[in-house]
Design goal:
By secondary structure, this protein is of the alpha/beta class. 32% of the residues lie in helices and 16% in strands. The protein has 8 helices and 7 strands. Helix 1 packs across helix 4 and helix 3 packs parallel to helix 4. The longest helix has 14 residues. The chain is globular, with a radius of gyration of 17 Å.
Length: 256
């Protein structure tokens, strides 16, 4: 994975806009905060076919009301959200390896949605659904507080120019909202191949009072559930770094 660009199965863009500001409270961040900037992308015939044939079953329409995962998946199971799955290869592999867990992937880019739908069909994944919409609104409107067992954010756009750092996805207001959607004991797992962004992520996550770093003060080893991408593996062989951050919302302590 070359550190000059995000990997292919990362979102093309996961930044926040120039006017992103502090949320007035955890459940109602300012509407100007967004989790993406749209960029054009090509659609292959397989992706278009998957959109047409599998989209109605596996793509959940955005709606401004709380989603009931048990109704969507037809069972009671832990639910993990992924923000910005890009082309969806890692997402599909994670879902296949954890059939006991249900996954919701949020992505705005249609080629990525089509690519993941194609993998869902090829791999027979019944525990994965997609929402093609702004992740901030999905978090705010469709997911109940304390409803998620985990959140994955892998290789978001690093916006490497200093003047664009304010566009980065991991900002205090989004992390505050994410923390409210995690159930006690739930985790937030981020990964980046940009050391500067890793430092910002660590500072932002450490400052969120609802979250605790599983590594006390630093970065975590790559958990077994996050597969190596071909770009990441290539970058590691070239000596490029990858930083994983694993934070949890502490379980509720029962009074003795």
């Amino acid at each position: 994975m070359a550190p000059s660009s995000p990997p292919d199965d990362s979102p093309a863009d996961n930044g926040t806009p120039d006017d992103a500001g502090a949320a007035t409270d955890h459940d109602h961040p300012r509407r100007s905060i967004r989790s993406f900037v749209l960029r054009a992308g090509r659609m292959g015939t397989g992706q278009m076919r998957a959109l047409a044939e599998l989209g109605p079953q596996f793509v959940l329409p955005y709606q401004a009301q709380v989603l009931d995962p048990s109704s969507v998946f037809g069972r009671q199971a832990p639910t993990v959200l992924e923000i910005g799955f890009g082309m969806g290869d890692a997402t599909a592999r994670i879902a296949a390896a954890q059939p006991q867990t249900d996954f919701i992937g949020v992505e705005v880019h249609t080629p990525g949605v089509g690519a993941l739908l194609k993998r869902i069909g090829e791999m027979g994944l019944g525990n994965l659904r997609i929402v093609q919409h702004d992740a901030v609104e999905v978090l705010r409107d469709m997911l109940a507080p304390a409803s998620l067992a985990g959140v994955h954010i892998y290789f978001p756009d690093p916006w490497h120019k200093k003047k664009h750092h304010k566009r980065r996805l991991i900002q205090p207001e989004l992390v505050a909202l994410l923390a409210t959607r995690l159930a006690p004991g739930g985790y937030l797992h981020c990964a980046t191949d940009w050391q500067d962004y890793a430092g910002q992520m660590l500072a932002v996550l450490a400052a969120e009072p609802m979250l605790v770093n599983t590594r006390a003060e630093g970065y975590a080893p790559r958990p077994d559930w996050r597969p190596l991408t071909k770009f990441e593996n290539r970058g590691l062989k070239l000596g490029h770094g990858v930083w994983d951050l694993l934070f949890v919302r502490p379980p509720v302590t029962q009074p003795s």
